[in-house]
Specification:
Helix content: 10-25%
Number of domains: 1
Order of helices and strands: HEEEEHEEEEEEEE
Number of helices: 2
Largest sheet: 6 strands, antiparallel
Strand content: 35-45%
């Protein structure tokens, strides 16, 4: 009887720990979108590489977007009329295109966007939301990793954003998806060594901006 009571108590503790662990999950988990360009596939001697095609990709340069991934959870994301985009802004002057820490672009190669070249490095990404008119913004604003209202030299999300540090503004191509995407997702689409598109999807909206890999 005593052993059974101990077992029941242990199971109750484990169940409580699992519930607490679930409750402690962030509402907007972090994510990363990545592409690699300008490398080459090499066939190793012997058994080959444990990858599709049996070849190893060497010498590639990375392009990455790191961002918070909020879930829709039944919300009306965009609104309409004069209220369009205000729910996503949450009081900020521009959308962080993610959640929590500012969405960040890190590139090891020059990128040409809207006929402007940005050098390799790290940048913040924002989207200026207007009905049927989204603008992709690359900015040199640094990002706060933890919210500090006294830090005026870096942003948390897009609060206190100003356009003076913008390096690129580009119109985005908007389209309607046939399905609803629950969790905000950035992806690199239509990729080649010459370039591709940076694409964001949430609910039934997809917006993308083309880019070229510079020399």
């Amino acid at each position: 009887m005593t052993l059974r009571l101990i077992l029941v108590a242990v199971l109750a503790i484990v169940a409580s720990a699992m519930v607490l662990a679930q409750d402690n999950r962030p509402l907007s988990p972090s994510g990363i979108a990545a592409a690699q360009v300008q490398g080459k596939y090499v066939k190793p001697t012997g058994r080959g590489a444990p990858a599709l095609g049996g070849e190893a990709y060497q010498g590639g340069k990375w392009i990455e977007i790191t961002y918070g991934r909020p879930l829709k959870r039944g919300r009306d994301l965009w609104g309409s009329g004069a209220e369009y985009g205000k729910a996503a802004l949450v009081g900020a002057p521009i959308w962080r295109a993610g959640a929590n820490v500012s969405t960040r672009l890190k590139t090891e190669v020059p990128l040409v966007i809207n006929d402007k070249t940005i050098a390799p490095g790290e940048y913040s990404l924002f989207i200026d939301l207007k009905p049927n008119n989204w603008t992709f913004v690359v900015s040199t604003w640094p990002a706060q990793t933890r919210f500090d209202p006294n830090n005026k030299d870096a942003l948390w999300g897009s609060y206190n954003y100003t356009p003076d540090k913008d390096v690129v503004r580009a119109p985005m191509m908007l389209s309607t998806l046939p399905v609803s995407i629950e969790q905000l997702t950035w992806e690199f689409t239509d990729m080649s060594d010459a370039g591709g598109k940076m694409t964001i999807m949430w609910d039934k909206t997809m917006a993308s901006v083309p880019f070229k890999v510079g020399s």
